Amino acid sequence: MPGFVDNLKHSLFTKFMISFGLILMFSISIWAYFNIKYQQERLKKEVSAGAERLSDTIQLGTHYAMMNNSRNDINQIIINIARQKDIETIRIYNKAGQIKFSNLAPEVDETTNIKAEACDICHRTDPPLTRLSLGKRTRIFSSANGYRRLGIISAIYNVPGCSASDCHFHPEEKQVLGALDVVVSLAETDQQIAAFERGVIGLAVFVFFATGAVIFLLMVRFLKQPISRLIAGTRQISKGDYAAHLDVEQNSEVGQLAMAIKQMGKEIGAKQAELNRQMTEYQNLFETVPCYITVQDRNYRLLQYNKKFADKFAPQPGDFCYRAYKGRSEKCVVCPVERTFEDGLAHQSEESGLNRHGELQHWVVQTSPIRNADGEIIAVMEMNLDITERTQLTLELEKSEKKYQEIFNNIPNPVFVLDADTLEILDCNDRIPTVYGFSCAQIKGQSFMETIPKRDRQRMQSELTSSAVINQVRQFTKEQKVIYVDVRISPSEYKGRKVLLVTTSDITKRLEAEQQLIQASKMATLGEMATGVAHELNQPLSVIKTASSFLMKKVRKKEPIPEDILFTMAEEVDSHVDRASKIINHMREFGRKSDLNLVKVQVNQVLERSFEIFSQQLKVRGIRVEWNLDSDLPEITADPDRLEQVFINLLINARDAIIDRLEAGGQDEVLTKIFLRTRGEADKVIVEVCDTGVGIPPAVKDKIFDPFFTTKEVGKGTGLGLSISYSIITEFGGSISAVGNEPQGSCFIITLPREDETAVE
Ligand code: ADP
Question: Atom 21 (ligand 1): residue with closest C-alpha?
Fold first, then answer.
């Protein structure tokens, strides 16, 4: 009930109705008041005018009787007139206030008080007033019977007829002779006025209620109902029914307001939907974010937390951060939440500790303050990322890195880590100082090309990025000494960069040893060939000897020597000296210790040259050679001196194998033959040196290329020929193999890559 009264008190409709009611009541009351007033005045005026006319009539009617001083006539006239309805009294006073005539006989000759109401109006002054307006002469007074009366007193003036008459004249200076007082009843008039008043008041009340009712209905129809619907609609909107139907079919301002509210509802609905979507999104984020999120108060009590936290720590209602995370009974010594509460700033820290199961955990903790509208910190949000696994992995990685660093450093070969694009040395292992003399720190940041002689840099640059293996690379040591290394390259990644892992093996000593072996082998070959060479040199020497003997004999005999013979002999001597020098130069060149010198080589020429130095060896043993050379043989890249050494080794072995067979009893001339063949194929050149010797027994076939393997007797064989031939041919990118020769002996087949296909420049 108080609520209803309160509502009513504050209701706009009530206020409107009360205001309208008061204004209406005020207006109608004013109207009724003035209407009644007007009617009262009008009736009073009418009654006054009637009484005035009556007074005039009485005066005129009694004038003649007065002139004749006929008292009876006057009395009769007065009594007769007074018989008319509503006329109460008609009195005529003399100047002294004595009633001279009256329709009420008892009061005749009574003297009234001159100060009485009717007389006082003129006798207030001295001398009394003689002329007064009707209003002032009129008086209304109540009768003893309860109704009102209206009295009009009129002066009876001294007219010439009175003053000049001889009957009972009045002195001329006397203006007023007496007064006529007419009193009429206002009972009927008052009844009329009362009826009118009732009518007006009744009408006013009717108009008030009728207008009030109409206004009420109109207000209800056009204001209260639509407003109630608007209120109901807005309540629906506030409850979330954003498409609420507002049943206000008006084009008025209220209708427009309804449309605006409807539109507002729709917009709020759309915004709310968007807010809901975002809220759901953020809620999902909050719940599914892969870290623990809690909101804590100043006592570290958990106010909110996400699902991941709830799943992992299963907190009790009203639980504390330190208990849920670590099973502690009090807060942690270092607490970022506490710091955030203290300084209002976000803090981040990495923490380690035992969880409530006693396991070592690592966390990254991030805190930030939550403030209220006044900017006061009411809570702190803590985001906790479990990095235990990552930390363990990092530790393991560190261990593993350390292990690999140790392996890296203990690799017996130097290892360089080069940037794949710039070939900058990014890292190197501990073997570098041993081989190169400089420390890793000294060459870090330099280009790997700095360690390569200038003339080799271009080749290395391209091969480093395209090959896996590069043999016999020249490199500088700290003392600018050149060493030879074999290089192995493998692409990799190092600290997020593409790198080349370059491993080098110092082969300088091996190469030197090989060089010495090659030289030793050469010397042995030279020794082998000594007999043959001696034979070879013998021929030119005997020619020269013959010529010199002939010349000495002629000189001694003092015989002339014909000029043409002398010239022929000189020519002969000259050509044989040339031949001897050629043989000696060839031998000297062959025996010279030389470095590897790769050039374009025509294999046929090298084979012929090898045979040239060796032919005498075969000739003395009756071994014939069958040539079958490909005249279109393509060139290869090789060192001609070393290739010659290979061919000579093969020819020596072929010779020995044939001799062995001959010594073993085989005398077949057809079989004392060496076959020298060359042929070119698509990408290679093939050389075959075949013999008709003893052949290679299967038992030793796998060993013949081993260093120092020989089946020859001591002092004859060194066991170096084939092994050195093998390494020389391999060095040229080729291959050498031994097969049986049909029907007798063995065949050594050398395959060398063609010039454009060769791997070794
Ligand atoms: P050496 O000739 O000093 O023995 P090699 O390395 O040249 O050293 O040869 C190794 C061995 O291979 C020889 O001792 C021999 O047994 C065998 N051999 C080489 N060439 C032939 C050949 N043409 N016929 C048969 N056996 C051969």
Answer: 653
